[in-house]
Design brief:
The chain contains 18 helices and no strands. The chain is an all-alpha fold. The protein has one domain: MFS general substrate transporter like domains (Growth Hormone, Chain: A), CATH 1.20.1250.20. Helix 11 packs antiparallel against helix 17 and helix 12 packs antiparallel against helix 13. 60% of the residues are buried.
Length: 435
């Protein structure tokens, strides 16, 4: 693996209006799709009570819903590998549009799905199937988005470009958090349980179809078009080439993806719910804090991309990993002490969760263009499936067993993996510089 891949033409031009249009449309569509995927976790406790047998505690309902949230991660590799195969063979744009369509349909259906009180055990079964389809969709969306954008922009601005896209994706988390905060503030618990949660999913379905429309205006990437003209497309199964010839890149990509998983799933998605069950923070304050963290996450992603282009991938990853560990500990120790500084500390933790803006630059640079989509998809989705499926269950248990501080210990452990990956990239000069 080399820092500048031979398949890509080194492009020193500045970002132009065409690049800006690609970034904006890609990021906006990704934000709407990501909202569809994550809104589930903000209503985890409600869904747990509605779609499982009644009579359990809040903690059990939350754990049951987190289990369904985890199921979607297990489906990610399937969707990612299949979409990446066709993305490397027939084009990036087609798969980029298909992924958002596959997200919109199940989100809308969840919004009108009968609950356990109406159809019994069929309710959790149907909900699980729809979450699996969402997992398939997101498995193709995220790697496809990073590849699509990185192959459109100048080489020396790839770090900022893919980080800006990640900021757009995480803006979808902010949308979900703001809506959850609004509904909790303006609806009674009874109304929220009865129909309020459906509003979030029905809106998500509408958002998804808007994203499908927006992507009609995007064009195929210049890198793929050039490979197709020169007949440089992979003739072998791209996923097999990835595993056979690029194993170091796969392992590095999986390591940094684990860090991204801890930042997004634990710090941003699960903490607002954990604050309510482990620290007895009221819902409005918890979701307001989550919204602040999601907002600074967007800013942190852009900051991470600027660090990549300025200092290189290795040093940027090191700064973000250490900051993630320290800021998460600060937030959880404050919550344990009563949460007097919840908002500023959640803002800080959200900013360092901006490691999510550094990771895609590492992944994009790890694989050559003919198998880039498959390379990122295999490593990112397999790592996310394992970590994403295990993390909600482990963190939910740790929050109960370790006096609420357990999730911070988990984030710290994973952050150390990020530090180790950073040191590897810094020592191996091929990875230390921006591509």
């Amino acid at each position: 693996m080399s820092a500048t891949l031979p398949d890509d033409t080194v492009d020193a031009r500045p970002l132009d209006r065409r690049d800006a249009k690609t970034l904006v449309l890609s990021a906006l569509g990704g934000a709407l799709e990501f909202y569809d995927f994550v809104i589930f976790v903000y209503f985890a406790k409600t869904l747990g009570h509605l779609f499982f047998p009644p009579g359990g505690s809040d903690w059990l309902a939350q754990l049951q819903a987190f289990s369904l949230f985890a199921v979607a991660y297990l489906a990610r590799p399937l969707g990612g590998i299949v979409m990446a195969h066709f993305g490397d063979r027939v084009g990036r744009k087609r798969m980029f549009t298909l992924s958002v369509f596959l997200m919109a349909v199940p989100t809308l259906l969840i919004g009108v799905l009968p609950t356990y009180a109406s159809i019994g055990l069929f309710a959790p079964v149907l909900l699980t199937l729809l979450r699996v389809v969402q997992g398939v969709a997101i498995g193709g969306e995220v790697p496809g988005a990073w590849v699509f954008v990185s192959e459109h922009v100048p080489s020396r601005r790839k770090g900022l470009a893919v980080a800006s896209l990640s900021a757009g994706l995480t803006f979808g988390i902010l949308l979900g958090s703001l809506l959850a905060a609004y509904l909790n503030a303006h609806m009674s618990p009874e109304a929220l349980m009865d129909h309020g949660w459906r509003i979030a999913f029905i809106l998500g379905g509408v958002f998804g179809f808007i994203a499908v429309y927006l992507r009609r205006w995007l064009s195929e990437t210049p890198v793929f078009a050039r490979m197709r003209e020169r007949r440089q497309l992979s003739e072998e199964l791209p996923a097999w080439v990835v595993v056979r010839d690029h194993l170091p890149g796969v392992l590095l990509s999986m390591a940094v993806t684990w860090v991204l998983t801890a930042a997004i799933v634990v710090v941003i998605l699960m903490t607002p719910t954990l604050m309510q069950t482990a620290f007895h923070v009221d819902a409005v304050r918890a979701f307001t804090g989550g919204s602040i963290g999601a907002f600074t996450l967007c800013l942190g992603c852009v900051g991470g991309g600027l660090l990549v282009d300025w200092l290189g991938r290795g040093r940027a990853m090191l700064i973000a990993s250490v900051g993630l560990m320290l800021s998460t500990y600060a937030l959880y120790f404050d919550l344990q002490a009563g949460g007097a500084h919840l908002y500023p500390l959640y803002a800080l933790a959200g900013a360092f969760a901006g490691v999510a803006g550094v990771v895609p630059a590492v992944l994009v640079a790890a694989f050559p263009a003919p198998i880039r989509f498959s390379g990122i998809s295999v490593s990112y989705n397999v790592a996310y499936a394992i970590a994403g499926a295990v993390t909600p269950l482990v963190v939910g248990y740790l929050a109960r067993a370790a006096g609420g501080i357990g999730p911070a210990h988990y984030v710290a452990l994973v952050s150390l993996v990020g530090v180790a990956a950073s040191v590897y990239m810094i020592v191996d000069k091929r990875h230390a510089v921006s591509s």
